[in-house]
Structures are given as C-alpha cells and as structure tokens.
C-alpha cells in the first residue's frame, strides 16, 4: 500500500507518498493522486491510502520549513529510472542547501561528460521527489531560474529560504 499525507507549507500543500517507510513521491500539490498517477504501474497497483501522519517524513518536512535545511536528507527515497538518472538524482541530493549548480556541473559531478547536461535536465524534469531530491538547486548557465515542475515562484521561494538560513 502507498501511504500519503498532505502537509501544509509556507508555499502551499506538499503531498508525500511512501511505501514501506521509503519516500516514493513528493510534490507541491494538495492532491496526492497527482503524484500517485506518476508512479510506476506496479506501485499504483498497490493502492493509495491517505493517512494522518507519516511520522519521520512529516517531521522532516516540518523541520525543513522551520529552518533545519538538512532535515530532508535523512529520509530514504526511491524512484524509477535508468542507472544514469539514478546517479544524477543521488548527486542532486549531495548539493548542499544554500548552493546551486548548473546542469553541466551536475553532469560532471555525476561522472558524466559535460555534454550530458541534457540528461541532467531530463533527470530534474522526471524527478518525482521534490524537494527531497532538490532539483530546485539546479540553474541554467544562461542565467535566470530555468523551469520547475511546480512553477518558478516555488523554485525561487525554496532557494531564498535556503540562502537566508546559511
């Protein structure tokens, strides 16, 4: 069974979905079904149950928004993808709060050639576990904020929240 909880945050509701206490999806939406339908068919087959408290995951979200910017790092995550995508997602989790990287730099940190910046962008676009896999910390080398699945204002808010605490 996939368990979900909807948590209030300063930038809107965050739906978090777990399976066996491992986070499988998270996103800035008040409807966990929006995240659930992005899961693999195998996970969707397990069903969805909205619960009152996911314990450590909910505590980590509250702590993060209260200023403990590393609280999300302690939560185990799992999402589908090729070995390259999984490596990029792991390296994303190593980008510290209050800092940013370019797509090209993310690719280099993952041991991929600089030309793999497109793969880094794709990994961010397909990320199912925001902000635990912090794709908001990746900015284009051309300037600006680039895109963000939940909207650029959310990305800007997260970056400002993290930089104000460092």
TrEMBL record:
Keyword DNA repair among record annotations: yes
Catalytic activity as recorded in UniProt: a 6-O-methyl-2'-deoxyguanosine in DNA + L-cysteinyl-[protein] = S-methyl-L-cysteinyl-[protein] + a 2'-deoxyguanosine in DNA; a 4-O-methyl-thymidine in DNA + L-cysteinyl-[protein] = a thymidine in DNA + S-methyl-L-cysteinyl-[protein]
CDD domains, per the entry: ATase
Pfam families, A to Z: DNA_binding_1
Gene3D superfamilies cross-referenced by the UniProt entry: Winged helix-like DNA-binding domain superfamily/Winged helix DNA-binding domain
SUPFAM superfamilies: Methylated DNA-protein cysteine methyltransferase, C-terminal domain
Keyword terms of this UniProt record: DNA damage, DNA repair, Methyltransferase, Transferase
Name of the protein: Methylated-DNA:protein-cysteine methyltransferase
PROSITE patterns associated with the record: MGMT
PANTHER family in the record: METHYLATED-DNA--PROTEIN-CYSTEINE METHYLTRANSFERASE (PTHR10815:SF13)
Annotated Methylated-DNA-[protein]-cysteine S-methyltransferase DNA binding domain residues: 84-163
GO biological process, one term: methylation
GO MF term set: methylated-DNA-[protein]-cysteine S-methyltransferase activity
InterPro entries: MethylDNA_cys_MeTrfase_AS (IPR001497), MethylDNA_cys_MeTrfase_DNA-bd (IPR014048), MethylDNA_cys_MeTrfase_DNAb (IPR036217), WH-like_DNA-bd_sf (IPR036388)
């Amino acid at each position: 069974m996939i368990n979900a909880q909807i948590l209030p945050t300063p930038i809107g509701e965050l739906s978090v979905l777990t399976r066996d206490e491992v986070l499988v999806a998270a996103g800035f939406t008040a409807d966990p079904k929006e995240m659930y339908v992005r899961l693999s068919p195998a996970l969707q087959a397990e069903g969805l149950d909205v619960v009152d408290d996911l314990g450590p995951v909910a505590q980590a979200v509250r702590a993060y928004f209260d200023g403990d910017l590393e609280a999300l790092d302690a939560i185990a995550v799992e999402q589908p993808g090729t070995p390259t995508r999984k490596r990029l997602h792991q390296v994303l989790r190593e980008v510290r709060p209050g800092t940013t990287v370019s797509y090209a730099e993310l690719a280099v940190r993952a041991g991929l050639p600089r030309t793999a910046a497109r793969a880094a962008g794709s990994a961010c676009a397909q990320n199912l576990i925001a902000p635990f896999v912090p794709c908001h910390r990746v900015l284009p080398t051309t300037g600006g904020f680039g895109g963000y699945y939940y909207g650029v204002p959310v990305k800007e808010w997260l970056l400002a929240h993290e930089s104000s605490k460092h």
